[in-house]
Amino acid sequence: MSDDLSRLELLRFARRVVEQQARASLTQLDRWIADEERREAERRRGEEMRPPPPDWLLQYGLNHRHVDSVHCGDCWAAAKSGRCRPATREQALEALRHQVPACTHCRPDTVLGVLE
């Protein structure tokens, strides 16, 4: 008997190797898919649990003591400042009555019905 493998035996061996590598690749892909599905579910849960934005915001100065302006809760300019705190409707109205400027972008004075 010859120690040389036949062409057919080599082809069958090659098929087993490819099959094994394919299974390993599919297992890795399945792990990646499961990880991504978990991340997506966590992101959705985080969005669902996030509290709604406040209706009104008061922007404080650099010293965080005096109110600089009044914003609507979804104002993009307020989000950029990083110095805002949520406020009630009454607090926003009171600030506008005390001559605190309204944001020129979201116009909370118009939304609240306060005209300067």
Describe the 3D structure.
This protein is an alpha+beta fold and 116 residues long. It is 54% helix and 13% strand. It contains four helices and three strands, in the order αββαβαα. The chain has helices spanning 7-49, 76-81, 89-97, 108-112, and strands spanning 56-60, 67-72, 84-87. It has a three-stranded antiparallel beta sheet with strand order 2-1-3. The longest helix is centred in the N-terminal third of the chain and has 43 residues, at 7-49. The radius of gyration is 32 Å and the shape is rod-shaped. The mean pLDDT is 91.
Entry keywords:
single chain, 116 residues, alpha+beta, three-stranded antiparallel beta sheet, 4 helices, rod-shaped
How would you summarize this macromolecular structure in one to three sentences?
By secondary structure, this protein is of the alpha+beta class. The protein has 4 helices and 3 strands; from the N terminus they run H-E-E-H-E-H-H.
Helix content: 40-55%
What strand line-up does the widest sheet have? Answer: 2-1-3
Topology, number of strands: 3
Helix and strand element order: HEEHEHH
Low-confidence stretches: none
- Helix count from the secondary structure assignment: 4
Q: What is the rounded Rg? A: 32 Å
- Tell me the strand percentage band: 5-15%
Round the mean pLDDT to the nearest integer and report it. 91
State the secondary-structure class.
alpha+beta
From the spread of the alpha carbons, the general shape counts as rod-shaped
Instruction: Give the terminus-to-terminus CA distance.
Output: 105 Å
Summarize the biggest pleated sheet.
3 strands, antiparallel
